[in-house]
């Protein structure tokens, strides 16, 4: 399936602020739409799904990592020296990812979130979004970014069909930003958020990981951000997916505690008719001035309503974020497996999805068998 996308190397990872340009030089203009060959192959085939596990959960939401590389070293995601990056040949091409997405959409997947690593580091991401937006049956495309390159890409991403954006932002203070994310990037991310607003993204969500002694005292500042701007702030509990460097249960700030602290100043109420599969428990301010969300995988595990599956940048398929070993789809893909064979591998893997994944969520210790970073699994 030739996609004819612009060629060229990816920008180098791990580089500091000044090296990562907003407009990537040498990037050829994106085609307005995929070429006819791809156009034809993007037409829907009959749905073969659904993807059901033995607990009756149906997988509809796919997280696709387009790169394991990142220009940040967030303390809750990886150690300061980083984690080993995969050689480029190990990373799925956009063509390979689109093929797997097509197969999964035929099995009932209707939402895709593009993530990483840092997805905006990979060359031609707007082109990839455009290709996804042409997959018939795919209803919802979103993207999660650290926001560092967003200012220069917001319009292109919007034009490519992206509407939903999550931007990670853990502090509103410049000195702390460097302490938490290990890059001096706050102003660029704030500019990125403004560019996303101006481009018309809706919703824009900010993801915030709170940690005791680091940014816990900014809870009300983030509540004010959600009240004053068209941005929904979501607090995510710190999970043991930091490359084995930092996590311990006493570093988890529980979502309930955060919610109570906000409610004491700005009363909130649950949002009516929430999405039953959304990991975030959504609240709105009673005076109508914005929304907050709480993703509490540690204190209130939501495994039984989970409808997510994941594809790592290297083509590993996971039915749970805490799964140590994913199913390798790259090898069958590259050795000529048919859509039916790929469907069968995926369907079998979903059927085997564990009740609570690989993280022991029931004994209060939350031990994780893996030393992976979220950037490697695809967060
Ligand atoms: N690089 C992009 C970013 O930071 O938004 C996308 C990938 S990142 C792995 C996706 C999300 O995972 C971010 O919102 C980040 O805050 C969150 N995350 C990473 N490690 C985490 C951890 N150990 N616990 C909770 N959330 C984590
Ligand atoms: Fe990079 Fe995102 Fe991980 Fe931070 S959370 S190190 S930005 S992948």
Features:
379 residues, alpha/beta, TIM Barrel, 12-stranded mixed beta sheet, 11 helices, 27% helix, globular, binds S-adenosylmethionine, binds iron/sulfur cluster
Helix count equals 11
CATH top level? Alpha Beta
Spatial extent as radius of gyration:
20 Å
What average pLDDT do the residues reach?
86
Bound molecules: S-adenosylmethionine, iron/sulfur cluster
CATH homologous superfamily classification: Aldolase class I
Structural class: alpha/beta
- At CATH level 3, the topology is TIM Barrel
Enumerate the strands of the largest sheet in spatial order, edge to edge or round the barrel. 7-8-9-6-5-4-3-2-1-10-11-12
- Taken as a percent bin, the fraction of beta residues is 5-15%
The coarse silhouette is globular
Described by strand count, sense and barrel closure, the largest sheet is:
12 strands, mixed
Q: Give the uncertain stretches in residue-range form.
A: 6-47, 361-365
- As for the number of domains, it is 1
First-to-last CA distance:
28 Å
Q: Using the 3D structure, state the CATH architecture.
A: Alpha-Beta Barrel
SSE string, helices as H and strands as E: HEHEHEHEHHEHEHEEEEEEHHH
Number of strands: 12
Helical content, roughly? 25-40%
Task: Tell me what you see in this structure.
The chain is α/β, with parallel strands linked by helices and 379 residues long. It has one domain: TIM Barrel. The protein has helices spanning 36-41, 94-106, 125-133, 150-159, 174-181, 186-199, 219-228, 255-265, 330-334, 339-351, 374-377, and strands at 61-65, 111-115, 140-145, 164-168, 204-209, 231-236, 268-270, 280-285, 291-295, 308-311, 316-318, 327-328. Helix 3 (125-133) runs parallel beside helix 4 (150-159) and helix 4 packs parallel to helix 6 (186-199). The longest helix is centred in the middle third of the chain and has 14 residues, at 186-199. Residues 6-47 and 361-365 have low confidence and may be disordered. S-adenosylmethionine binds next to strand 3, strand 5 and helix 11.
């Amino acid at each position: 399936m030739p996609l004819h996308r612009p060629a060229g190397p990816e920008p180098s990872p791990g580089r500091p602020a000044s090296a990562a340009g907003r407009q990537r030089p040498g990037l050829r203009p994106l085609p307005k739409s995929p070429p006819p060959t791809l156009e034809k192959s993007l037409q829907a085939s009959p749905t073969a799904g659904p993807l059901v596990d033995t607990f009756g959960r149906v997988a509809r939401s796919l997280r696709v990592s387009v790169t394991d590389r990142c220009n940040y070293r967030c303390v809750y995601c990886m150690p300061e020296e980083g984690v080993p990056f995969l050689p480029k040949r190990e990373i799925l091409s956009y063509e390979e990812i689109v093929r797997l997405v097509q197969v999964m959409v035929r099995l009932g997947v209707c939402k895709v979130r593009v993530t990483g690593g840092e997805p905006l580091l990979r060359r031609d991401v707007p082109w990839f979004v455009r290709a996804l937006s042409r997959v018939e049956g795919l209803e919802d495309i979103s993207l999660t970014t650290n926001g560092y390159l967003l200012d220069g890409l917001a319009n292109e991403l919007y034009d490519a069909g992206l509407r939903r954006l999550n931007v990670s932002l853990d502090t509103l203070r410049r000195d702390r930003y460097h302490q938490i994310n290990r890059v001096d990037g706050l102003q660029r991310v704030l500019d990125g958020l403004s560019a996303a607003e101006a481009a018309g993204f809706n919703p824009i969500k900010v993801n915030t990981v709170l940690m005791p002694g680091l940014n816990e005292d900014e809870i009300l500042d983030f509540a004010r951000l959600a009240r004053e701007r068209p941005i929904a702030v979501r607090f995510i509990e710190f999970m043991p997916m930091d490359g084995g460097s930092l996590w311990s249960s006493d570093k988890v700030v529980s979502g309930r505690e955060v919610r109570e602290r906000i409610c004491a100043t700005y009363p909130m109420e649950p949002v009516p008719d929430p999405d039953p599969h959304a990991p975030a428990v959504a609240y709105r301010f009673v005076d109508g001035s914005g929304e907050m969300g709480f993703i509490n995988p540690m204190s209130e595990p939501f495994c039984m309503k989970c409808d997510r599956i994941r594809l790592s940048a290297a083509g590993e398929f996971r039915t749970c974020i805490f799964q140590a070993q994913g199913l390798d789809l790259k090898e069958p893909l590259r050795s000529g497996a048919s859509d039916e064979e790929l469907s069968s591998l995926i369907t079998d893997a979903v059927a085997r999805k564990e009740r609570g994944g690989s993280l022991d969520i029931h004994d209060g210790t939350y031990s994780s068998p893996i030393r992976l970073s979220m950037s490697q699994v695809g967060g």
